[in-house]
Write a structure and sequence with these properties.
- This protein has no helices and six strands.
- The protein is an all-beta fold.
- The protein has one domain: Probable tRNA pseudouridine synthase domain (Thrombin, subunit H).
- The chain is globular.
- 19% of the residues are buried.
Amino acid sequence: MRRVAYFLHKSPSGRLIARVLAHRPPRIGVRIYDSRGRFIGRVIDIIGPVNSPYIVIKPSDHPELKPYDELFTR
C-alpha cells in the first residue's frame, strides 16, 4: 500500500477531508484505505492550492477515523 494522505476532519455534508502527502494527489475515483487495509471510501474531489492539495473522500458506511490517521491506496 502507498501512503497518500492523512485524515483531517469530516465536513458538515459527511465527506472526509484529508491532506495529501504524496508529490501528486491520487486521481478522482481511487479507493482509499486505512492503515489496517479497510476500505474508507473513494476520492471525489481535489481542492486547495497546487503546492499543498487536499482530497475530498466520499466515505463508505461509517469509517472509524481519528484526526491525523494515515490513508493509503493500493
